[in-house]
Design a protein that fits this description.
Elements lengths: L7 E10 L2 E11 L4 E5 L6 H9 L6 E6 L2 E2 L10 E4 L11 H11 L4 H14 L15 H14 L4 E5 L7 H18 L2 E6 L2 H7 L2 E6 L2 E6 L1 H6 L4 H6 L4 E11 L2 E6 L2 E6 L7 E6 L5 E2 L5 E12 L4 E5 L7 E5 L12 E6 L5 E4 L2
Parallel strand pairs: 3-8, 3-9, 6-7, 7-8
Antiparallel strand pairs: 1-2, 1-4, 4-5, 9-10, 11-12, 11-14, 12-13, 14-20, 15-19, 16-17, 16-19, 17-18
Helix pairs in contact: 2-3, 2-4, 3-4
Length: 355
């Protein structure tokens, strides 16, 4: 069940289109002032969930409560929810200031209040000098900031963002992520953000809801999502991982030993002997040329230089993936075919039932 004390409380949201179930009874609780990202692949239901919260789509079943009020049956304009769309949805015939003022005028705010509010939010998004310019003359990043300012100017109880950075280039996208995070925290705005970009979710979120096939597989802090993924799907969708398949050969007091193609390894877990499992570890937790609590020896297949880090990819069977990510190799990058010891801690070893 969702948290009944949550500022945004979605309970049992279901939605189907014909025979296809898009949401299968989703619960989501978001605290006041929190930034939660809905992260997942295309078709997982994240945008459908966002549109249900916004009132742009009716759920087949389920309830949506905001600030203690049931808004399930309310139309979008009576939900006190701001939305920033993927394509920004700005009014091309209006200036930057007129776009930001649009929602305030629709709410019949006094002219003096409208002028002061528009100025404040254009200052916040660093567009005060563009107030009288046509939005058609702006860059993509500037248009995105206008869309955010317009949504925030009416001070909604909840801000919804549907992949607003997807059309921006990488450097601008990263800059906008930091700026938006700063702005929303400064204003204390409760926000739900849809993205398929794991780095974006990790950068911006207080918590991340990883979605798969119409369900939330894990809702947690970015650090926990990355370091302790609860399911194999979350492991593979968020970040890179080493994956080694094997069979449990011993199990005692929450510890298991697993035979893999590269040798016997240990992990914390509760699987019975004979169970087929997948061991996993984040590649930056592995040390090349070092024997650890868990160790294997493998042949280097390829090395990829990525500026601040180097990825070493090793030979493994078809079901496995073995790599190391490191900031430095004191002795230099070894040649392909070099046999290296790889070591890591038992505590860094994750275990899942075999896919």
């Amino acid at each position: 069940m969702a948290d009944r004390t949550a500022f945004l409380d979605v309970t049992g949201a279901e939605k189907s289109f014909g025979a296809a179930t898009v949401l299968g009874g989703v619960d989501l609780g978001v605290a006041g002032g929190e930034f939660v990202s809905l992260l997942g692949p295309s078709g997982c239901g994240k945008t459908t969930l966002l549109r249900i919260v916004a009132g742009l789509l009716a759920a087949d079943r389920g309830r949506v409560r905001l600030d203690g009020e049931d808004i399930t049956g309310r139309p979008p304009h009576r939900r006190d929810v701001g939305v920033v769309f993927q394509n920004y949805a700005l009014f091309p015939h209006l200036t930057v200031a007129e776009n930001v003022a649009f929602g305030l005028k629709a709410r019949r705010r006094p002219a003096g209040e409208i002028g002061a509010t528009v100025k404040r939010f254009l200052d916040l998004v660093h567009l005060a000098d563009f107030a009288d310019r046509s939005v058609r003359a702006l860059s993509g990043g500037q248009q995105q900031r206008v869309a955010v300012a317009r949504a925030l100017a009416v001070r909604p109880k909840l801000l919804l963002l549907d992949e607003p950075f997807s059309a921006l280039d990488r450097k601008l996208r990263e800059t906008m992520q930091i700026e938006l995070r700063r702005l929303l925290r400064e204003l204390g705005t409760t926000s739900v953000f849809v993205t398929h970009d794991q780095d974006e979710a990790l950068t911006m979120s207080d918590r991340i809801a990883v979605m798969n096939r119409g369900a939330i597989e894990q809702l947690d802090t970015p650090e926990t999502i990355y370091r302790r993924p609860q399911t194999a799907f979350v492991l593979e969708f968020v970040g890179l991982s080493v994956r080694l398949s094997g069979k449990v050969v011993a199990a005692t007091a929450g510890k298991i030993e697993v035979d893999t193609a590269l040798g016997r390894l240990r992990a914390g877990g509760n699987f019975a002997p004979g169970a087929a499992v997948m061991l996993a570890v984040r590649p930056e937790r592995i040390k090349a040329g070092v024997v650890g609590e868990n160790s294997v020896t493998a042949a280097l297949r390829d090395a990829v230089f990525q500026g601040a880090k180097i990825q070493l990819h090793f030979e493994a069977n078809d079901r496995d993936q073995l790599m190391v990510e490191t900031a430095d190799i004191p002795s230099g990058i070894p040649a392909p075919g070099t046999m290296l010891a790889l070591g890591w801690a038992v505590a860094d070893t994750l275990v899942y039932a075999a896919p």
